[in-house]
Amino acid sequence: MESQQSFDDTAIYCPQVKVDLIPVKNQEFHTLEDVETFYKSYAKESGFDVKSFTSEKKNGVIVRKAYVCSKQGTSKVTGKKRNRNRTRVNCKARIVVARRATIGKYVVTIFDEGHSHPLTTLRRKHLTKIHREVSSIHKSLTKQLTAVNVPTCTQFDFLGVHSGGVENIGCLQQDIYNYKRDCRKEVEGHDGDMLHEYFLLEIEKDPSLIFKIEADNENRITHIFWADAISRRSYKFYGDVVIFDTTYNTNMYSLIFAPLVGVNNHGQTIILACAFLSNETTDSFVWFFKEFLDAMPGDAPRMIITDQDPAMTKAISEVLPQTFHRYCSWHILNKFSEKIDPGKYTRYYDEFQDCIWNSENRDEFDARWTSIVVSSGLSDNGWLKTMYDIRSTWVPAYVNHIFSAGMSSSQRAESGHAFYKRFVSKENTLLDFMLQFNRAVTRQRHMELMEDNVDINEKPNFHSPF
């Protein structure tokens, strides 16, 4: 391990490099870029960082320019700032060039070689800023790895293996984070336009794709709806029963992701339509359901399954009055532990479950529910009274007369959220989200294709006891 040693503030440290790398007075350069490149090459070999310093102009042309060691000057702290280590030690190392009009070149007029601090050793040179740059190859690799949700820390490990060691990568992990930050900044203020252009390009490939983007008075996006040809065709065959649920943390703008899903003939969850909403108000849900009905072929669904969100319930009754609105049984059952006494929950929950799932008709359910409530002493529980009053929206004995494709909860939507979040994150721009989300949908549809292939090429074995 390399030991840390104190250094003498009065000592002068001179780089030990090849002679042809050392600047000399009266050395000539065609441009300032040539000066900077030469001095930085010298600094790389020497073990220090360079920063551009003072310059003088005459008639718009730089006639004098200085480049100095990054430790030039002194560190000053004014006011309340976060505590940082002192990095400047008033180093005097520098190169100064002046433009000679007679020859049209820049000439070295001052070269101070000595540093007032130890120079970076060979083992630590890759840590200095002058040695660090995210190369074009690494930028490309980073974009590709990000596209398949490889975390930045894992990307850096991969680059280390690919380069034969982290010291050979040419940058630090923080540099990759900074590069990604800069990429995000490039699209700030343009993300909505880029998303619009993306949809227009997609329409060229899929003319049946439908999308709509709405913004407020300040030109901030409030609603986005889209459904491609496959989703619209799927609705035609599997749109009798749909599930609607929302989720968060899928984009950097905190827009709410609202997919509407169904189930296909293989029992797989499929995407029927998607939206981004700025809030979960009745107006937003009304907007979504109207766009959904306009986009889909055929009539409204026969059943929609959601949680008990009041705004969602109101919107469905307004836009889908002929659609049976079923509440998610799973959400209701999960609330038993919150709404009733812990001791009574432990003792009677199984009885409630058996009553809900195994009652063969409405009369049996009513009788069993009443018996359990009385015997448990929960007759005064307001939440149980409310759940009983709305039993026609969630209890199987009351809703099984309507085709539900074997679904009684919105868990399919929630498991779908978990699946999509393997591809998207809260750091995504809207365009990033679409690219990543389409990867997820492509994976989902490929699984459907595999099941179709099995149906065509394989036949089930039928067994008979006779």
UniProtKB/TrEMBL annotation:
This is Putative transcription factor FAR family. PANTHER family: OS01G0519700 PROTEIN. Residues 37-120 form the FAR1 domain. InterPro entries: FAR1_DNA_bnd_dom, MULE_transposase_dom. Residues 241-334 form the MULE transposase domain.
